Task: structure prediction
Amino acid sequence: MLREALPKIVTPLPGPKAKAILDRRAAAVPNAIGCAYKAVIERGEGAMFEDVDGNIFLDWIGGVGVLNMGYSNPEIIEAVKAQSEKFFHSMFNITTHEGYVKLAEEMNRIVPVKGDEKKTMFVCSGSEADENAVKIAKSYTKRPNIIVFTGAFHGRTALTMTMTAKKAYAIGMGPFPDGVYRAEFPNLFRAPGGMGEEEAIKYYVEKLKQVFIEAAPADSVAAIVFEPVQGEGGFIPAPIEWVKAVRQICDENGILMVCDEVQSGWARSGKMFASQYFADAGCAPDIMTTAKSIAAGLPLSAVTARKEIMDAVTPGTIGGTFGANAVSAAAALKVIEIIERDDYCGKAMAISEKVTAKANEWVEKYDVVGNVRGMGAMMGIEFVTDKETNAPNAKVVADIVQYAMNKGLMLESAGTYGNVIRFLCPLVVTDEQLEAGLAIFEEAIVACK
Result:
Protein backbone atom coordinates (compact mmCIF):
# COMPACT_ATOMS: atom_id res chain seq x y z
CA MET A 1 0.00 0.00 0.00
CA LEU A 2 1.37 3.38 -1.03
CA ARG A 3 0.54 4.88 2.37
CA GLU A 4 3.12 2.56 3.98
CA ALA A 5 5.65 2.49 1.12
CA LEU A 6 9.26 3.66 1.15
CA PRO A 7 10.99 5.76 -1.53
CA LYS A 8 11.77 3.82 -4.71
CA ILE A 9 13.08 5.16 -8.02
CA VAL A 10 12.58 2.77 -10.95
CA THR A 11 13.41 5.04 -13.90
CA PRO A 12 15.88 7.89 -14.41
CA LEU A 13 14.14 11.20 -13.70
CA PRO A 14 12.12 12.32 -15.46
CA GLY A 15 10.74 9.02 -16.69
CA PRO A 16 9.35 8.82 -20.24
CA LYS A 17 5.71 9.47 -19.29
CA ALA A 18 6.68 12.34 -16.99
CA LYS A 19 8.95 13.81 -19.68
CA ALA A 20 6.07 13.85 -22.16
CA ILE A 21 3.76 15.66 -19.71
CA LEU A 22 6.49 18.11 -18.68
CA ASP A 23 7.05 18.92 -22.36
CA ARG A 24 3.31 19.57 -22.73
CA ARG A 25 3.44 21.74 -19.63
CA ALA A 26 6.28 23.82 -21.08
CA ALA A 27 4.22 24.44 -24.21
CA ALA A 28 0.93 25.23 -22.45
CA VAL A 29 1.78 26.86 -19.09
CA PRO A 30 3.67 30.13 -18.42
CA ASN A 31 7.34 29.55 -17.61
CA ALA A 32 7.09 32.09 -14.79
CA ILE A 33 5.13 29.62 -12.66
CA GLY A 34 8.32 27.59 -12.30
CA CYS A 35 9.00 23.86 -12.32
CA ALA A 36 11.76 22.83 -9.94
CA TYR A 37 11.10 19.09 -9.85
CA LYS A 38 10.97 16.38 -12.50
CA ALA A 39 8.00 14.59 -10.98
CA VAL A 40 4.47 14.24 -12.36
CA ILE A 41 2.17 12.85 -9.69
CA GLU A 42 -0.26 10.03 -10.46
CA ARG A 43 -1.62 9.33 -6.97
CA GLY A 44 -0.76 10.07 -3.36
CA GLU A 45 -1.43 8.55 0.05
CA GLY A 46 -0.15 9.70 3.42
CA ALA A 47 3.29 11.26 2.98
CA MET A 48 4.01 9.36 -0.25
CA PHE A 49 3.17 9.83 -3.90
CA GLU A 50 3.69 7.77 -7.03
CA ASP A 51 4.51 9.42 -10.33
CA VAL A 52 3.24 8.44 -13.77
CA ASP A 53 6.30 6.21 -14.33
CA GLY A 54 5.94 4.25 -11.10
CA ASN A 55 8.57 6.10 -9.06
CA ILE A 56 7.64 6.46 -5.41
CA PHE A 57 8.59 9.61 -3.54
CA LEU A 58 8.60 10.60 0.13
CA ASP A 59 7.34 14.18 0.24
CA TRP A 60 8.95 16.51 2.80
CA ILE A 61 7.47 19.57 1.08
CA GLY A 62 3.80 18.71 1.56
CA GLY A 63 2.50 21.22 -0.97
CA VAL A 64 4.51 23.82 1.00
CA GLY A 65 2.47 23.19 4.13
CA VAL A 66 -0.84 22.16 2.54
CA LEU A 67 -0.71 18.44 3.28
CA ASN A 68 -0.42 18.18 7.06
CA MET A 69 -3.19 15.56 6.87
CA GLY A 70 -1.51 13.69 4.02
CA TYR A 71 -2.42 13.31 0.38
CA SER A 72 -5.80 11.59 0.64
CA ASN A 73 -7.31 11.09 4.08
CA PRO A 74 -10.23 8.64 3.67
CA GLU A 75 -12.48 10.46 6.16
CA ILE A 76 -11.99 13.78 4.40
CA ILE A 77 -12.72 12.13 1.06
CA GLU A 78 -16.02 10.87 2.43
CA ALA A 79 -16.90 14.30 3.86
CA VAL A 80 -16.22 15.91 0.48
CA LYS A 81 -18.24 13.26 -1.35
CA ALA A 82 -21.20 13.71 0.99
CA GLN A 83 -21.27 17.48 0.52
CA SER A 84 -20.72 17.29 -3.26
CA GLU A 85 -23.82 15.14 -3.58
CA LYS A 86 -25.90 17.95 -2.00
CA PHE A 87 -24.41 21.00 -3.75
CA PHE A 88 -21.00 22.32 -4.70
CA HIS A 89 -21.36 26.02 -4.08
CA SER A 90 -23.59 28.75 -2.75
CA MET A 91 -22.15 32.25 -2.63
CA PHE A 92 -22.42 33.28 1.01
CA ASN A 93 -23.35 36.88 0.19
CA ILE A 94 -26.43 35.52 -1.58
CA THR A 95 -27.50 32.31 0.14
CA THR A 96 -26.36 31.27 3.61
CA HIS A 97 -25.15 27.69 3.93
CA GLU A 98 -24.62 26.06 7.30
CA GLY A 99 -21.13 24.79 6.47
CA TYR A 100 -19.76 28.35 6.42
CA VAL A 101 -21.51 29.19 9.69
CA LYS A 102 -20.40 26.00 11.44
CA LEU A 103 -16.81 26.42 10.26
CA ALA A 104 -16.77 30.04 11.45
CA GLU A 105 -18.05 28.85 14.84
CA GLU A 106 -15.27 26.26 15.01
CA MET A 107 -12.62 28.80 14.00
CA ASN A 108 -13.88 31.20 16.66
CA ARG A 109 -13.52 28.39 19.18
CA ILE A 110 -9.96 27.33 18.29
CA VAL A 111 -8.18 30.46 17.02
CA PRO A 112 -6.11 32.10 19.80
CA VAL A 113 -6.75 35.80 19.16
CA LYS A 114 -7.51 38.36 21.87
CA GLY A 115 -11.13 38.67 22.93
CA ASP A 116 -13.91 36.43 24.19
CA GLU A 117 -16.25 37.00 21.25
CA LYS A 118 -14.68 36.34 17.85
CA LYS A 119 -15.76 36.36 14.23
CA THR A 120 -14.26 34.70 11.15
CA MET A 121 -14.44 35.41 7.41
CA PHE A 122 -13.29 33.11 4.62
CA VAL A 123 -11.60 33.59 1.29
CA CYS A 124 -9.60 31.19 -0.90
CA SER A 125 -5.84 31.74 -0.56
CA GLY A 126 -3.24 32.87 1.95
CA SER A 127 -2.63 36.03 -0.05
CA GLU A 128 -6.32 36.92 0.11
CA ALA A 129 -6.45 36.25 3.84
CA ASP A 130 -3.43 38.47 4.51
CA GLU A 131 -4.76 41.25 2.29
CA ASN A 132 -8.16 41.13 4.02
CA ALA A 133 -6.47 41.21 7.43
CA VAL A 134 -4.78 44.46 6.45
CA LYS A 135 -8.06 45.87 5.12
CA ILE A 136 -9.80 44.93 8.38
CA ALA A 137 -7.03 46.52 10.47
CA LYS A 138 -7.18 49.73 8.46
CA SER A 139 -10.97 49.89 8.66
CA TYR A 140 -10.93 49.36 12.43
CA THR A 141 -8.10 51.75 13.29
CA LYS A 142 -8.77 54.34 10.56
CA ARG A 143 -5.00 54.38 9.93
CA PRO A 144 -3.20 54.04 6.57
CA ASN A 145 0.08 52.23 7.28
CA ILE A 146 1.38 48.80 8.24
CA ILE A 147 4.74 47.42 9.34
CA VAL A 148 6.13 44.14 8.04
CA PHE A 149 9.57 42.53 8.32
CA THR A 150 12.71 41.46 6.56
CA GLY A 151 12.42 37.85 5.41
CA ALA A 152 8.62 38.02 5.26
CA PHE A 153 6.47 36.24 2.70
CA HIS A 154 2.79 37.16 2.61
CA GLY A 155 1.70 36.43 -0.97
CA ARG A 156 1.65 37.50 -4.60
CA THR A 157 -1.23 40.00 -4.88
CA ALA A 158 -0.13 43.61 -5.38
CA LEU A 159 -0.39 44.39 -1.66
CA THR A 160 1.01 41.12 -0.32
CA MET A 161 3.82 41.20 -2.89
CA THR A 162 4.71 44.58 -1.39
CA MET A 163 4.55 43.12 2.11
CA THR A 164 6.83 40.26 1.02
CA ALA A 165 10.50 41.00 1.57
CA LYS A 166 12.17 38.92 -1.14
CA LYS A 167 11.82 41.04 -4.24
CA ALA A 168 12.64 38.14 -6.55
CA TYR A 169 8.88 37.59 -6.21
CA ALA A 170 8.13 41.09 -7.47
CA ILE A 171 10.48 41.74 -10.39
CA GLY A 172 8.84 44.02 -12.93
CA MET A 173 5.67 44.38 -10.89
CA GLY A 174 5.99 47.94 -9.57
CA PRO A 175 5.02 50.54 -8.66
CA PHE A 176 3.91 49.05 -5.36
CA PRO A 177 1.19 50.19 -2.95
CA ASP A 178 2.14 52.88 -0.45
CA GLY A 179 2.00 52.62 3.32
CA VAL A 180 4.03 49.42 3.81
CA TYR A 181 7.13 49.83 5.98
CA ARG A 182 9.71 47.22 6.94
CA ALA A 183 11.53 46.46 10.18
CA GLU A 184 14.22 43.88 10.87
CA PHE A 185 12.99 40.41 11.89
CA PRO A 186 14.79 38.78 14.84
CA ASN A 187 17.10 36.20 13.27
CA LEU A 188 19.08 35.06 16.31
CA PHE A 189 21.47 32.91 14.24
CA ARG A 190 22.53 35.98 12.30
CA ALA A 191 22.27 38.64 15.01
CA PRO A 192 24.92 41.33 14.49
CA GLY A 193 28.19 41.13 16.36
CA GLY A 194 27.56 37.67 17.76
CA MET A 195 24.97 39.02 20.21
CA GLY A 196 23.44 36.67 22.75
CA GLU A 197 19.69 36.08 22.68
CA GLU A 198 18.71 38.67 25.27
CA GLU A 199 20.87 41.40 23.76
CA ALA A 200 19.73 40.51 20.24
CA ILE A 201 16.04 40.72 21.13
CA LYS A 202 16.56 44.18 22.61
CA TYR A 203 18.37 45.18 19.42
CA TYR A 204 15.53 43.96 17.18
CA VAL A 205 12.89 45.65 19.34
CA GLU A 206 14.75 48.94 19.01
CA LYS A 207 14.97 48.45 15.24
CA LEU A 208 11.18 48.13 15.18
CA LYS A 209 10.71 51.29 17.23
CA GLN A 210 13.05 53.10 14.85
CA VAL A 211 10.47 52.67 12.09
CA PHE A 212 8.15 55.01 14.02
CA ILE A 213 10.86 57.66 13.93
CA GLU A 214 12.16 57.26 10.39
CA ALA A 215 9.23 55.93 8.33
CA ALA A 216 5.73 55.75 9.83
CA PRO A 217 4.72 57.52 13.07
CA ALA A 218 3.12 55.10 15.51
CA ASP A 219 -0.25 56.86 15.36
CA SER A 220 -0.38 56.24 11.60
CA VAL A 221 0.20 52.47 11.86
CA ALA A 222 -2.84 50.20 11.67
CA ALA A 223 -1.05 46.87 12.10
CA ILE A 224 2.23 45.10 12.66
CA VAL A 225 2.14 41.89 10.61
CA PHE A 226 4.48 38.92 11.05
CA GLU A 227 4.74 35.15 10.67
CA PRO A 228 5.20 33.22 13.94
CA VAL A 229 7.71 31.15 11.97
CA GLN A 230 8.96 32.79 8.80
CA GLY A 231 8.46 30.48 5.83
CA GLU A 232 10.25 31.71 2.71
CA GLY A 233 12.50 33.75 5.00
CA GLY A 234 14.20 30.58 6.22
CA PHE A 235 11.95 28.98 8.86
CA ILE A 236 12.96 31.48 11.51
CA PRO A 237 10.77 31.37 14.65
CA ALA A 238 9.78 34.62 16.33
CA PRO A 239 11.35 34.57 19.84
CA ILE A 240 8.65 34.71 22.49
CA GLU A 241 10.27 37.63 24.34
CA TRP A 242 10.31 39.61 21.10
CA VAL A 243 6.62 38.81 20.54
CA LYS A 244 5.85 40.05 24.06
CA ALA A 245 7.62 43.30 23.24
CA VAL A 246 5.70 43.66 19.96
CA ARG A 247 2.43 43.05 21.83
CA GLN A 248 3.34 45.79 24.32
CA ILE A 249 4.27 48.22 21.54
CA CYS A 250 0.93 47.53 19.83
CA ASP A 251 -1.04 48.00 23.05
CA GLU A 252 0.71 51.27 23.90
CA ASN A 253 0.10 52.72 20.44
CA GLY A 254 -3.33 51.44 19.40
CA ILE A 255 -1.83 49.15 16.76
CA LEU A 256 -3.22 45.71 15.89
CA MET A 257 -0.87 42.72 16.03
CA VAL A 258 -1.52 40.39 13.10
CA CYS A 259 -0.09 36.86 12.90
CA ASP A 260 0.16 35.27 9.46
CA GLU A 261 -0.36 31.55 10.09
CA VAL A 262 -0.92 30.60 6.48
CA GLN A 263 1.91 28.05 6.71
CA SER A 264 2.42 27.49 10.44
CA GLY A 265 -1.14 26.51 11.35
CA TRP A 266 -3.04 23.24 11.66
CA ALA A 267 -0.89 21.33 14.20
CA ARG A 268 2.35 21.98 12.32
CA SER A 269 3.90 23.87 15.26
CA GLY A 270 2.87 21.36 17.93
CA LYS A 271 -0.19 23.48 18.73
CA MET A 272 -3.26 23.88 16.54
CA PHE A 273 -1.78 27.32 15.77
CA ALA A 274 1.65 28.69 16.62
CA SER A 275 -0.08 31.75 18.05
CA GLN A 276 -1.27 29.53 20.90
CA TYR A 277 2.27 29.71 22.28
CA PHE A 278 1.91 33.49 22.25
CA ALA A 279 -1.53 33.38 23.87
CA ASP A 280 -0.18 31.11 26.61
CA ALA A 281 2.51 33.73 27.27
CA GLY A 282 -0.01 36.58 27.41
CA CYS A 283 0.71 38.05 23.98
CA ALA A 284 -2.02 36.74 21.69
CA PRO A 285 -2.51 38.49 18.34
CA ASP A 286 -5.50 40.68 17.51
CA ILE A 287 -5.98 39.16 14.05
CA MET A 288 -4.85 35.79 12.73
CA THR A 289 -4.84 34.52 9.15
CA THR A 290 -4.56 30.92 8.06
CA ALA A 291 -4.80 28.81 4.90
CA LYS A 292 -2.65 25.95 3.47
CA SER A 293 -3.69 22.83 5.45
CA ILE A 294 -7.05 24.23 6.57
CA ALA A 295 -9.02 22.06 4.11
CA ALA A 296 -6.52 19.27 3.39
CA GLY A 297 -5.75 20.58 -0.09
CA LEU A 298 -8.95 22.32 -1.15
CA PRO A 299 -8.81 26.12 -1.63
CA LEU A 300 -9.75 27.92 1.56
CA SER A 301 -8.34 30.57 3.90
CA ALA A 302 -9.58 32.43 6.94
CA VAL A 303 -9.24 35.64 8.92
CA THR A 304 -10.26 35.65 12.60
CA ALA A 305 -10.44 38.58 15.04
CA ARG A 306 -12.49 39.70 17.99
CA LYS A 307 -16.02 40.91 17.36
CA GLU A 308 -15.36 44.63 17.82
CA ILE A 309 -12.66 44.58 15.14
CA MET A 310 -14.67 42.60 12.62
CA ASP A 311 -17.87 44.55 13.13
CA ALA A 312 -16.09 47.88 12.58
CA VAL A 313 -15.34 46.97 8.96
CA THR A 314 -17.11 49.03 6.31
CA PRO A 315 -19.84 46.87 4.69
CA GLY A 316 -18.98 45.57 1.25
CA THR A 317 -15.19 45.88 1.59
CA ILE A 318 -14.47 42.24 2.47
CA GLY A 319 -15.70 38.90 1.16
CA GLY A 320 -15.45 36.98 -2.10
CA THR A 321 -17.27 34.65 -4.44
CA PHE A 322 -15.73 31.36 -3.35
CA GLY A 323 -15.06 32.00 0.36
CA ALA A 324 -15.77 28.80 2.32
CA ASN A 325 -17.14 27.04 -0.71
CA ALA A 326 -19.41 24.30 0.64
CA VAL A 327 -17.09 21.44 -0.35
CA SER A 328 -14.01 23.16 1.11
CA ALA A 329 -15.92 23.96 4.30
CA ALA A 330 -16.89 20.29 4.70
CA ALA A 331 -13.24 19.29 4.32
CA ALA A 332 -12.11 21.88 6.86
CA LEU A 333 -14.65 20.78 9.45
CA LYS A 334 -13.40 17.20 9.14
CA VAL A 335 -9.77 18.44 9.40
CA ILE A 336 -10.50 20.08 12.75
CA GLU A 337 -12.25 16.95 14.02
CA ILE A 338 -9.36 14.66 13.04
CA ILE A 339 -6.59 16.91 14.34
CA GLU A 340 -8.22 17.15 17.75
CA ARG A 341 -9.33 13.52 17.97
CA ASP A 342 -6.07 11.94 16.78
CA ASP A 343 -3.68 14.38 18.47
CA TYR A 344 -1.91 15.68 15.39
CA CYS A 345 -0.17 18.23 17.60
CA GLY A 346 1.41 15.32 19.45
CA LYS A 347 2.38 13.77 16.11
CA ALA A 348 4.13 17.00 15.14
CA MET A 349 6.14 17.10 18.35
CA ALA A 350 7.18 13.44 18.03
CA ILE A 351 8.35 14.07 14.46
CA SER A 352 10.15 17.22 15.55
CA GLU A 353 12.02 15.39 18.30
CA LYS A 354 13.40 12.80 15.88
CA VAL A 355 14.31 15.20 13.09
CA THR A 356 15.83 17.79 15.40
CA ALA A 357 17.98 15.20 17.17
CA LYS A 358 19.37 13.88 13.88
CA ALA A 359 19.85 17.35 12.37
CA ASN A 360 21.74 18.52 15.46
CA GLU A 361 24.09 15.57 14.96
CA TRP A 362 24.70 16.89 11.45
CA VAL A 363 25.58 20.31 12.87
CA GLU A 364 28.36 18.62 14.84
CA LYS A 365 29.51 16.31 12.02
CA TYR A 366 29.43 18.51 8.92
CA ASP A 367 30.93 21.97 8.44
CA VAL A 368 28.23 22.89 5.91
CA VAL A 369 25.36 22.40 8.39
CA GLY A 370 25.20 25.65 10.33
CA ASN A 371 21.94 25.78 12.28
CA VAL A 372 18.75 23.86 13.06
CA ARG A 373 15.66 25.73 14.23
CA GLY A 374 11.91 25.88 14.08
CA MET A 375 8.70 25.29 15.99
CA GLY A 376 7.28 21.79 16.20
CA ALA A 377 7.47 20.03 12.83
CA MET A 378 8.11 23.28 10.96
CA MET A 379 11.89 23.20 10.88
CA GLY A 380 14.69 24.75 8.87
CA ILE A 381 18.25 23.49 8.44
CA GLU A 382 20.61 26.27 7.38
CA PHE A 383 23.67 25.49 5.30
CA VAL A 384 26.86 27.56 5.37
CA THR A 385 30.20 27.57 3.60
CA ASP A 386 32.02 27.23 6.94
CA LYS A 387 31.44 27.61 10.67
CA GLU A 388 33.80 30.59 10.95
CA THR A 389 31.89 33.01 8.74
CA ASN A 390 28.49 31.26 8.52
CA ALA A 391 28.33 32.57 4.96
CA PRO A 392 25.18 31.30 3.20
CA ASN A 393 25.74 28.22 1.04
CA ALA A 394 23.01 28.11 -1.60
CA LYS A 395 24.97 25.82 -3.91
CA VAL A 396 25.12 22.90 -1.51
CA VAL A 397 21.38 23.26 -0.84
CA ALA A 398 20.58 23.18 -4.56
CA ASP A 399 22.81 20.12 -4.98
CA ILE A 400 21.25 18.33 -1.97
CA VAL A 401 17.72 18.97 -3.26
CA GLN A 402 18.55 17.46 -6.65
CA TYR A 403 20.47 14.51 -5.19
CA ALA A 404 17.68 13.66 -2.76
CA MET A 405 15.01 13.90 -5.48
CA ASN A 406 16.87 11.30 -7.53
CA LYS A 407 16.78 9.03 -4.47
CA GLY A 408 13.04 9.55 -3.94
CA LEU A 409 13.04 12.27 -1.26
CA MET A 410 11.43 15.62 -2.07
CA LEU A 411 13.09 18.57 -0.31
CA GLU A 412 12.69 22.30 -0.86
CA SER A 413 14.93 25.27 -0.25
CA ALA A 414 14.00 28.48 1.56
CA GLY A 415 15.66 31.56 3.01
CA THR A 416 16.62 34.96 1.71
CA TYR A 417 19.80 33.46 0.25
CA GLY A 418 18.36 30.07 -0.71
CA ASN A 419 20.57 28.29 1.82
CA VAL A 420 17.92 26.68 4.05
CA ILE A 421 16.16 23.35 3.57
CA ARG A 422 12.66 23.39 5.02
CA PHE A 423 10.84 20.49 6.67
CA LEU A 424 7.10 20.36 6.01
CA CYS A 425 6.53 16.62 5.79
CA PRO A 426 2.90 15.50 6.19
CA LEU A 427 2.23 14.72 9.84
CA VAL A 428 1.01 11.23 8.89
CA VAL A 429 4.53 10.08 7.93
CA THR A 430 5.41 6.67 9.39
CA ASP A 431 8.47 6.07 11.56
CA GLU A 432 10.01 3.92 8.82
CA GLN A 433 9.45 6.62 6.21
CA LEU A 434 10.93 9.27 8.49
CA GLU A 435 14.03 7.15 9.07
CA ALA A 436 14.36 6.47 5.33
CA GLY A 437 14.11 10.19 4.60
CA LEU A 438 16.72 11.10 7.17
CA ALA A 439 19.07 8.49 5.72
CA ILE A 440 18.67 9.87 2.19
CA PHE A 441 19.10 13.42 3.47
CA GLU A 442 22.36 12.58 5.22
CA GLU A 443 23.59 10.65 2.18
CA ALA A 444 22.91 13.77 0.12
CA ILE A 445 24.84 15.98 2.57
CA VAL A 446 27.85 13.66 2.41
CA ALA A 447 27.73 13.49 -1.39
CA CYS A 448 27.31 17.23 -1.93
CA LYS A 449 29.30 18.94 0.83
Summary: The chain has two domains: 2-59+343-448, 78-341. Residues 344-365 form the longest helix (22 residues). The domain at 78-341 is CATH 3.40.640.10 (Aspartate Aminotransferase; domain 2).
